[in-house]
């Protein structure tokens, strides 16, 4: 799919659907709480060169803030919209559309965040990489391609951070970064609607799944979330992804996220379920309301 004009118009219609849902919900249940959920990857400039700082700003306005500004303010980032207008791909926005988006933004109660990784941003020359590079959907580390917008930005790897087998950056501090950014920019409470680690989990002969890597991942992220709360972010809730292993629209059954192992792969399986080590660990975290975590 490379029709950018259609992409942004469809995206605009999604925003309108969100806005109308918010307005309808508040009409039915004025005291109820409602908000959007967005896959947010806060970004770092790769270094302090001005062109890379500008690339980060443009990246954020065309990506993360393009969504969250509409949810929280009811309008698109002005410079990003101007860029799309110059490219001839900006969505058609009616006056009635703008009124609907703005009205809904006044009634949003929180920002939902699906957090998995941060992004690194560098200036991308006009003859540079495009948005259509291949994602790593095989789990073979290092096979994902750098993507970006020619003349604006690209997303190289971060040399300071490890990645999953699917080349997703592992950055617990990025969750804290995301919460502080949202708090400062939008002054909204936050629900972490997704956070988790996809991995090649293996079941032993005695039906055990020793996923200490998942425990380490979640513990590190929860500790950063506690720090964000201590620093003034209002965290309403935290939801892991996910309770059980499930089918991925990109990776099938090979990329597992759950606390419960499901005996199923692309070839079949019994669908029997087995509790992973992370299940027992997270059970204790819940029972102690996080007191079992050691936060430095």
Q: How would the blueprint of this fold be written?
A:
Elements: H1 4-28, E1 35-39, E2 43-45, H2 50-62, H3 64-73, H4 78-87, H5 95-105, E3 110-114, E4 119-121, E5 148-149, E6 153-154, H6 172-186, E7 190-194, H7 212-230, E8 235-238, E9 260-262, E10 273-275, H8 277-287
Distance between the termini: 46 Å
Strand content: 5-15%
* Structure class: alpha/beta
Largest sheet: 4 strands, parallel
Strand/helix succession: HEEHHHHEEEEHEHEEEH
Structure annotation, total helices: 8
Q: Return Rg in Å.
A: 20 Å
The strand line-up of the biggest sheet is 1-3-7-8
Shape: globular
Organism: Candidatus Enterococcus avicola
Protein name: Glycoside hydrolase family 1 protein
Keywords: Glycosidase, Hydrolase
Pfam families: Glyco_hydro_1
Structure notes:
The chain is an alpha/beta fold. It has 2 domains: 4-29 and 47-107 and 122-154, no CATH class; 195-287, no CATH class. The protein has 8 helices and 10 strands. The strands form 4 sheets. Strands 1-3-7-8 form a 4-stranded parallel sheet, with helices on one face. A two-stranded parallel sheet has the order 2-4. Strand 7 (190-194), helix 7 and strand 8 (235-238) form a beta-alpha-beta unit. Helix 1 crosses helix 5 and helix 6 packs parallel to helix 7. The radius of gyration is 20 Å and the shape is globular.
């Amino acid at each position: 799919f490379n029709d950018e004009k259609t992409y942004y118009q469809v995206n605009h219609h999604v925003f309108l659907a969100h806005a109308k849902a918010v307005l309808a919900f508040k009409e039915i249940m004025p005291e109820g709480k409602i908000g959007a959920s967005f896959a947010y990857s806060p970004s770092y400039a790769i270094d302090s060169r001005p062109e890379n700082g500008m690339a980060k700003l443009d990246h954020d306005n065309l990506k993360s803030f393009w969504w969250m500004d509409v949810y929280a303010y009811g309008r698109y980032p002005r410079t990003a919209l101007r860029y799309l207008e110059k490219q001839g791909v900006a969505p058609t926005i009616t006056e009635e559309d703008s009124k609907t988006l703005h009205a809904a933004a006044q009634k949003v109660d929180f920002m939902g965040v699906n957090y998995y990784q941060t992004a690194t941003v560098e200036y991308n020359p006009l003859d540079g990489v495009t948005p259509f590079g291949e994602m790593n959907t095989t789990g073979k580390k290092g096979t994902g391609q750098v993507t970006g917008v020619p003349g604006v930005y690209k997303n190289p790897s971060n040399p300071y951070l490890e990645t999953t087998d699917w080349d997703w950056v592992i950055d617990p501090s990025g969750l804290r970064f995301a919460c502080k950014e949202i708090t400062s920019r939008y002054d909204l409470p936050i629900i972490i609607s997704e956070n988790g680690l996809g991995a090649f989990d293996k079941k032993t002969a005695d039906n055990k799944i020793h996923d200490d890597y998942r425990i380490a991942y979640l513990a590190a992220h929860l500790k950063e979330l506690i720090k964000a709360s201590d620093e003034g972010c209002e965290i309403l809730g935290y939801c892991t992804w996910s309770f059980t292993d499930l089918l991925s629209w990109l990776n099938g059954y090979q990329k597992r996220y759950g606390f419960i192992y499901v005996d199923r792969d692309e070839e079949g399986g019994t669908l029997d379920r087995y509790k992973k080590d992370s299940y027992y660990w997270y059970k204790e975290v819940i029972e102690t309301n996080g007191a079992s975590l050691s936060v430095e």
